[in-house]
Each structure stands twice: as C-alpha cells, then as structure tokens.
C-alpha cells in the first residue's frame, strides 16, 4: 500500500481472489488504525504541498496521468476484470472512462475561478469592491466500492487533486489492485508523494480514525445505505458526499418502442452482473403492452452469455463472492415464498447468478423495497400515469429512473414528478457520462458526484473585500 509517501508492506495480508475462478491472485497489506493515523499525519503535511501546487501543475499531473491510463488501457482492463466482476469488454470501457475522468478533472482545474462582488448594491458601500476565490478544504477521505474499482476511485481522487487537496484513499477490500495501480500512475505523472495515501485493509479497522479526525474536512463515500448511515453518525462536523445505491425503476408506457425498451432494460438489469447502483431492478410496464414487452425482454435476456470474464464472447460475469450469491438467492426464495413467480433464471452456480426476472413480487419484499446487488429484476404493471409515478416513488431510494415513452408531454411531466437525481428518457436508468451531476435523494445519498460538482464540494469560497480610502 502507499502510506506516508512510500510503498509499504505488512506481515499480515489480505488475499485478493478472482470471484470467477476462486483463484488467489494477489495479497495486499492488512492495514491498521495505526497505519491510518500515520497517513493522517502525513496528509497534514501533504495538504500544504497540494495547496501550493499551481493550477498549471495540477492540470499537468492530471493530464499526464490520463495519458498513462490511456496508454495502458489493456493492462488496466485485465486488472479490473481479474480482481472484480466485470467482463473484459466492460473492464476496457471502465479503464477508458477513468482516463476521461482524469482529463475532465484537468479541465475543471483550469476553470476553478471566483467572481466579483458588487458591494455597492447596499447603500453606504460605494467605496468597497471585492471578489471571491476558491480554496481547498485540506484533507479529503475517500472510501470506494468494488463494482467500479478504478473509475469510481478517479471520481474521488481526481477532483480532490484538481482542487488542491491532499487525499487518503481506502479502496474496497475485494478490489484494491486497480486503486494501487492508479496510485502508481498518479505518482508517475508527478503527484507529490505526501499528497496521497492508499490504505488497504478492513474498513471496520482502518476507517474510524479517518472518519473521526478533525483534520479531515470531507468524506466522499460510495457504498451501501447502512454503511453510509454509520459514516454520517461518526464523521462529525465535516462535509459528506455519499452515493448509497438504489433499486432503480424503469417505466414503459404503452406508446414506447418496446424493442428498444426491452433491450435497454436487459442491459440495465444485467450489465456488470447487476452490481451497479444504477441497475434496473423494478420494471413497471403499462398493462396493455405487458405481454409483448415481457416476451421481448426474456428473448433478449436468454441470449446473454455468462461465464469466463476474460472471454470476448461473455456478456455477464459473476457476483463478487459466493456468499453474496447465496444472499441474492435467499432474497429470491423469500420472494417466491411470498407469491413471486420466476419468469427467467432464479438459480446460481458458485459466484454466478443467472439473469433473473420475477413477477408478482410483493411490495414488502427485499426485492421490491431494497437494493439487491445482483442480476435480478422484478416485473410489475400499471394502468395509468399516476400509478406508474406513485409506484416508482414509493421506496426509500431515488437515484435514477429510465422512462420509455414517445409522448413528449409524458416525458416532461415525469421529469418533474419522479423523486430522483436523474430521469433518463428512452434509455436505461443505468446511464451516466462522467461530466454530469450524479447522485440521488432519500436513501440514495447526499450531494452530487461528477467532476465539476465534486470540485465545488472539495473547495470553498473565500470573500475578499477592499475598502478604498482617499489619500489626503
């Protein structure tokens, strides 16, 4: 791990395995609370170094790191696919996106400006003028998940660097290798060593000092709702940015293009093995087109090929662990006991859960009201617009929603009536470009990611006022 400005080993290690094969592929240090304390002490020095980097230096570091990722996309993709749940094609896409996110951060560093203030808008202040500029918070704590082990790291690290901060990264225990690889590239690109630490280990042991430290001025976290609530209770008086998942709805109105809707729903439900905060989980279809949509959905889903992540022909890989696969199967079985009917899949082998679609899933079941991090979707019907919107809104999540309709008024109205962070018209809820504001409402989190929004959160405005005195 990269600790206090140098690469550090420990006698106690954590094994990293390939969830597709069960093979141990690497070990990383099992960091401790003392390691985190050491990282914090170094970050106190590092925040001064980071703040003194000129805009030009920040741009150059981020741009060079983007090129290093671009030049080594295949190496990055192989690493992402080996330690995680993505197919090689999905991994290549993530690696390319990580380079693009670094480029976006370089561009945003250039645009990190203030504004002038008209103090004379208040009587008696004609002799004043001034402006604002943005200054870094200081130390950012970043905690990242397993499902996007490189690009979600970049979404936290790159804006922190662009804003002139030091940053301490705690990557997911299951997928630390992509984060360590990225750390190498940032250092190779010229990032001063004390500006960043990447600490591997168990979150319950490593993160408490990070959360409790008054020197840390922001925690940026992507993960589950339960963990997010614990972080909020323990972090104290500091900024929080948390993306906590969802169980995204997908609305298909009777005027929709059903072929395209079915294709988008299948991709959104089963891409990355359903282990995506944006994955399609609850599908609501107008009752008049339910049968046709269902047939098209199942036909397209049955064409998906699961298996070897490294094969170019594979569409869907495993879930992150056999334990998680069993948990998903428990949710499916519980829903069946409550009256749900399996239309597709509903079984697993080792870490591979087959693409699953259920009908008649009760609203009090886990599959309906909570996030299920796996390739499982449920199908429901609605009679009119009001019922569709009410159903989409009735859970404690609100990240993004896909809406399929060719009726402009329906699309515009839904954009205002859905309680979410993003309304995606005629596409899956699983749509994101890295420049857009990204986040949700209710249990889906607080604040927004996306490079511009993140940099705004990771810096603060300072007001400067000059009172002009006449010389006599």
From TrEMBL:
Recorded GO molecular functions are: lactaldehyde dehydrogenase (NAD+) activity
| Signal peptide residue numbers | none
Q: Spell out the family assignment given in the record's similarity comment.
A: Belongs to the aldehyde dehydrogenase family.
Q: Which residues form the Aldehyde dehydrogenase domain?
A: 8-464
Fetch the Pfam families from UniProt: Aldedh
Source organism: Salicibibacter halophilus
Keywords, in A-Z order: Oxidoreductase
Name of the molecule in the record: Aldehyde dehydrogenase family protein
Q: Does the keyword Cytoplasm apply?
A: no
Task: Tell me yes or no: is Oxidoreductase among this UniProt entry's keywords.
Answer: yes
């Amino acid at each position: 791990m990269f600790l206090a400005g140098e690469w550090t080993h420990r006698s106690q290690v954590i094994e990293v395995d390939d969830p597709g094969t069960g093979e141990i592929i690497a070990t990383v240090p099992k960091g401790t609370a003392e390691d985190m304390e050491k990282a914090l002490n170094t970050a106190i020095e590092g925040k001064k170094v980071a703040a003194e980097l000129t805009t030009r230096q920040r741009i150059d570091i981020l741009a060079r790191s983007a090129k290093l990722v671009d030049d080594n996309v295949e190496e990055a993709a192989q690493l992402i696919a080996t330690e995680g749940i993505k197919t090689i094609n999905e991994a290549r896409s993530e690696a390319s996106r990580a380079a693009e996110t670094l480029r976006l951060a370089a561009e945003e560093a250039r645009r990190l400006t203030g504004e002038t203030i008209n103090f004379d808008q208040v009587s008696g202040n004609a002799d004043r003028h001034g402006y604002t500029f943005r200054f870094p918070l200081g130390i950012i704590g970043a905690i990242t998940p397993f499902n996007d082990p490189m690009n979600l790291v970049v979404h936290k690290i790159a804006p922190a660097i662009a804003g002139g901060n030091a940053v301490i990264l705690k990557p997911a225990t299951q997928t630390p290798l992509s984060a360590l690889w990225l750390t190498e590239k940032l250092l190779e690109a010229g990032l001063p060593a004390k500006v960043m630490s990447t600490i591997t280990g168990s979150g319950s042991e490593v993160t408490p000092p990070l959360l409790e430290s008054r020197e840390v001025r922001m925690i940026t976290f992507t993960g589950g709702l339960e963990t997010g609530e614990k972080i909020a209770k323990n972090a104290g008086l500091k900024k929080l940015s948390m993306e906590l998942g969802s169980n995204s709805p997908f609305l298909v109105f009777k005027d929709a293009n059903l072929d395209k809707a079915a294709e988008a729903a299948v991709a959104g439900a089963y891409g990355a093995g359903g282990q995506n905060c944006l994955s399609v989980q609850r599908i609501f279809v107008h009752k008049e087109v339910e049968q046709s949509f269902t047939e098209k959905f199942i036909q397209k889903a049955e064409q998906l090929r699961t298996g070897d992540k490294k094969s170019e022909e594979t569409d869907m890989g495993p879930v992150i662990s056999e334990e998680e696969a069993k948990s998903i199967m428990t949710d499916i079985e519980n829903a069946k006991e409550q009256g749900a009917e399996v239309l597709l899949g509903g079984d697993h082998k080792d870490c591979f859960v087959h693409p699953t679609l259920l009908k008649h899933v009760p609203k009090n079941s886990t599959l309906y009201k909570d996030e299920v991090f796996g390739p499982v979707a449920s199908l429901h019907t609605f009679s009119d617009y009001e019922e569709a919107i009410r159903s989409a809104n009735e859970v404690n999540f609100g990240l993004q929603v896909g809406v399929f309709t060719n009726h402009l008024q329906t699309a515009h109205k839904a954009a205002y009536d859905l309680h979410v962070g993003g309304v995606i018209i005629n596409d899956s809820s699983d749509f994101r470009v890295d420049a857009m504001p990204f986040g949700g409402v209710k249990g889906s989190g607080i604040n927004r990611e996306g490079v511009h929004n993140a940099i705004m959160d990771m810096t603060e405005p300072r007001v400067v006022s000059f009172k002009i005195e006449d010389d006599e």
